[in-house]
């Protein structure tokens, strides 16, 4: 292959990526990096487009590809054995097309691709199901809790129960996916009961928020989360069914002029590390070498500084012991607080 062939291949690839990400943005509303449902699936989608003449045959085919893409992200299709899974999917899309990809994914899940309430029990915007919540908020006609008006694209992420109202709860509990809504921030000091009590029934329903006032107290917070998860799961399944069957043909979504919002704590850590001469981390990063790993809050694949020949480093705020064992086995240096990372960096200076 000569230089001209390589250049042409790169040009085609850029075009395929643009085509697919445009579909992801205008049909799913996933319009900035933090909410993309993984990256490896995009290469398979590009392979499909290449075999399909560079574009989707119609909206139905596009939606079915997006259905496969969302499903791969939710279930961590490429969270382990990346090369093996990619090779299998490349072969499948060549021999069996899009139908084959969906069947292969379904088979890998034991025939079950349904979302359950428990799937929304994960914590932090770094989990796989936060983009699903964001997607639902973008594709449905959600209403601002304060004004009742359509929220529109680019709305900020808010806690239903602010952290200050949840004394005694840890980070994973306060940052539970079911504790987020989208809209303009309420006035400082607004209580949960005031926010939800003044919201219209339509606004509450549009954001899948339980309408029972008895659940709007900190004492009932676990019950509130459970009730909201029961509303989110069928909403996700209904939209996925629309993608799979091609039952809906909505107008393209308006692109949100969003920017990736960094966790303030991670931003401070990143800035302090740079001042000490270390690398900035990759945030919300997938670690493909460790099976079943949730998205890392921060990742230094080459260590804090490349010239130190250091181990790769991960920061995961909520880390299960089984996951730590997998990371240790894979050769990662593991931290669970920003303070511990900074202390380690200071020891290296």
Oligomer: single chain
Q: Structural class of the helix and strand makeup? A: alpha+beta
Mean pLDDT: 87
The coarse silhouette is globular
Rg from Cα: 21 Å
Furnish the topology, listing elements before pairings.
Elements: H1 3-28, H2 40-51, H3 59-75, H4 82-108, H5 130-139, E1 157-159, H6 171-174, E2 180-182, H7 192-198, H8 201-206, H9 221-245, H10 264-275, E3 282-285, E4 296-300, E5 313-315, H11 321-329, E6 333-335, H12 338-348
Helix pairs in contact: 1-2, 2-4, 3-4, 3-9, 10-12
Describe the protein's architecture and organization.
With about 350 residues, this protein is of the alpha+beta class. It has a four-stranded mixed β-sheet, with helices on both faces. Helix 1 packs across helix 2 (about 40-50). The chain is globular and about 65 Å long. Helix content is about 50%, strand content about 5%. The chain has helices spanning about 5-30, 40-50, 60-75, 80-110, 130-140, 170-175, 190-200, 200-205, 220-245, 265-275, 320-330, 340-349; strands at about 155-160, 180, 280-285, 295-300, 315, 335. Strand 5, helix 11 (about 320-330) and strand 6 (about 335) form a beta-alpha-beta unit. The chain is built from twelve helices and six strands.
